[in-house]
Amino acid sequence: MKRVPAHRSAESRGFTLVEVLVALAIVAITLGAGIKAAGALSNNAERLTEVSQAQWCADNQLTSWRLLQQQPAIGDSDFACDQLGRHYVGKLVVRPTPNPNFRRVDANVMNESGAPLVTLSTVLGR
């Protein structure tokens, strides 16, 4: 029976320190990438919620002018809107068109800090 040297039998029993450190580094990088991806998904969901609510505000402003069945005055005016506990500010921009019976109306909605969220446009007639 051939005898195995002592240094060979120790190697066959487990991993070296370098192998363990490399495995830990790979796991750490993978977990870091996963956490970053989860954070990005959370931020995107929050952004989608904010933009959807801002779009409702803009749509409400344009719909109210349609229901009035009159042309808004040419110029800019400010408006405010609350949706699901959030406050949005907006600007209604009314411009003439080549046909005097129609006006272009843009509803620009910003968040509380003034960052633009959404712009909806329509053409209103008499």
Summarize the structure.
With 126 residues, this protein is of the alpha+beta class. 46% of the residues lie in helices and 31% in strands.
Q: Could you explain how this protein is built, in words?
A:
With 126 residues, the protein is of the alpha+beta class. Helices cover 46% and strands 31% of the residues. The protein has two helices and four strands; from the N terminus they run ααββββ. The protein has helices at 6-11, 17-68; strands spanning 75-83, 86-96, 102-110, 116-125. It has a four-stranded antiparallel sheet with strand order 1-2-3-4, covered by helices on one side. The longest helix has 52 residues, at 17-68.
Which class best fits the helix and strand makeup?
alpha+beta
- From the alpha-carbon coordinates, what is the Rg to the nearest angstrom? 31 Å
Strand content is 25-35%
Binned, the helix content reads 40-55%
Tell me about the largest β-sheet: 4 strands, antiparallel
What overall geometry do the principal axes of the alpha carbons give?
Answer: rod-shaped
